[in-house]
Write a structure and sequence with these properties.
The chain is built from 7 helices and no strands. With 175 residues, the protein is an all-alpha fold. It comes from Sphingobacterium hungaricum.
């Protein structure tokens, strides 16, 4: 087999596989429930608090939705949309865990948390602006892949902050 026929065969089968993969319907609830059952057994043996378990389930829902969406449509547009939806879900969790932590603190520490969160929001917005600039064709070479990189960076910023806030709350609760 020549290299040319090998490449053509590879491309043909790749297109066929991509076409069928795009049509597969993955049931989010089934995947999530299977993961929860698997993890419930593991988590029960690790002596986690209910709040720790709830946080794990909250983030597992977002990550499972992202995984299912990415596996359902791995086109550039599909990846970007799935990642932005995950970022929106993490933003909701960010607000949830901010409110939980805020309610747990005394008046003085609430002011500190509020100031820290406002600073983080400013950092996040400026980080997004910087990443948009660096995604420009002059720096990155351009291409639709830059949208995937940007959406992932946005997701990572928000996800990391959710984890920080949850850790602060769980730490403060155990004092």
């Amino acid at each position: 087999m020549t290299l040319k026929s090998f490449i053509l065969s590879f491309l043909f089968f790749s297109v066929i596989q991509f076409s069928f993969a795009q049509q597969d319907s993955i049931n989010f609830d089934e995947v999530l429930n299977a993961k929860i059952k698997r993890y419930q057994k593991q988590l029960a043996s690790e002596e986690l608090s209910q709040k720790e378990f709830d946080f794990i389930i909250d983030t597992m829902k977002v990550e499972t939705r992202l995984q299912v969406d990415l596996e359902s449509d791995y086109s550039t547009s599909g990846m970007v949309n799935a990642t932005y939806q995950a970022e929106e879900s993490y933003d909701k969790l960010l607000n949830k865990y901010y409110k939980i932590l805020y309610a747990h603190l005394n008046k003085k520490d609430k002011a500190v948390l509020k100031k820290a969160q406002l600073s983080w929001l400013s950092f996040r917005d400026n980080e997004r602006l910087l990443f948009q600039s660096l995604s420009d064709e002059a720096y990155s070479g351009g291409g639709s892949i830059q949208r995937v990189f940007s959406s992932h960076r946005y997701l990572t910023l928000t996800k990391d902050r959710v984890i920080q806030l949850a850790h602060y709350y769980l730490y403060a609760e155990n004092l």
